[in-house]
Amino acid sequence: MQSTTENGTRLNQDWFSGPFTIRNYARYFYRPRIEEQVEWTFPITYKNYSWTTPSNETQALMYAIRLVQPDFVYGLHNSGFGGMYYYINQSFDDIFPELERLPSSLGLFLAKGEPEVPWMNQYATAIYNIPSLTDQYDYYEKHTDIDPVTTIRGGSSSCDYLKDIGLNKTIFLVTEVPYFQSPVVTNDTIIPNVTRRDVLLQGLDKDDKSNAILMNLLEQIKSAMTLDSSFYRASRSILELLNTTATSRRQAILNDDSTLVPATIASRADALYISMFYKMLIVSMLNRAITLQIQQSSEDIKLLENAQRELENHLDSWINDIEQNISYTPI
């Protein structure tokens, strides 16, 4: 299947022809809110959480999986920035060394820093189990006193659906290759007297500061944002989720003893800069949403223009912070 979301492709197409910089990529980036993502709206009921409304595209993918009964599934995913890593639903120790060697043979960097999310089970360097809503639920249930339901949006994935319909032997592999790579992600040099917990908390401190700025801006423009655009739904939903889960994410880090191991140059880069890259993409969608609203001849154009200038100043500052601390090249 070449694509399950043609609309997503169309709303990203303006960066396809370059220039290939993180600024231009962010300017034309789009990703739906979680509740509208094809891969993350498969039905699931787990403990106190339930999602029963798969999108039309997800239902089509469910039908295709039932029809084909695949032995092997390769997800056409990609990451955005940093290095290459893998997701796989079974442990194959005999092939993992070859997967670890493969990136360097292609001129790519293997990501040796932080996993995409903290509840991942790591099989080998940069090789993880497939992300699962159930693992996310269990992680917050174990490491916080906050209801895990408050941290979750959307449903499960196509990999989980394979298990749901009894295809337990199907191999599911995802190779996450970034658009922009940096050699810093391969640097596993230990930072003296610094733990993963230290750098992760530093990253959350930066996150909290940007959350305060963004929540204030969202409140300022709330009454003026009358256009229900995909950009506005996605950016507002994801930014609000990042804000509401800030306390649970911090509490989990403080209670997870695995964060007490020494930090590396790569893990610090992930915590302080690469994580901000992904948040910056969501903020850029908010900027696109404001532009669309202004084009609709809103009565609150002055308010929106002022808010957009402030937002763009912050975006520029955050991008500068990344570019001044991490070198990168497009792939």
Largest sheet, spatial ordering of strands: 3-8-5-7-6
Alpha-beta classification: alpha/beta
> What distance separates the N and C termini?
24 Å
Order of helices and strands: HHEEHEEEHEEHHEEEHHHEHHE
Keywords:
331 residues; alpha/beta; 5-stranded mixed sheet; 3-stranded mixed sheet; 11 helices; 12 strands; 12% strand
Question: Please, could you describe this protein's structure?
Answer:
With 331 residues, the protein is α/β, with parallel strands linked by helices. The protein has 2 domains: 6-185, no CATH class; 187-330. Helix content is 49%, strand content 12%. The protein contains 11 helices and 12 strands. A 5-stranded mixed sheet has the order 3-8-5-7-6. It is globular, with a radius of gyration of 20 Å. The mean pLDDT is 97.
Question: How do the strands and helices of this protein lay out in sequence?
Answer:
Layout: H1 6-12, H2 22-27, E1 44-46, E2 49-51, H3 56-68, E3 72-75, E4 81-82, E5 85-88, H4 96-105, E6 122-124, E7 127-129, H5 133-143, H6 158-164, E8 171-176, E9 180-181, E10 190-195, H7 196-221, H8 230-244, H9 246-255, E11 262-264, H10 265-295, H11 301-325, E12 329-330
Parallel strand pairs: 3-8, 4-9, 5-7
Antiparallel strand pairs: 1-2, 5-8, 6-7, 9-12, 10-11
Helix pairs in contact: 5-9, 7-8, 7-9, 7-10, 7-11, 8-10, 10-11
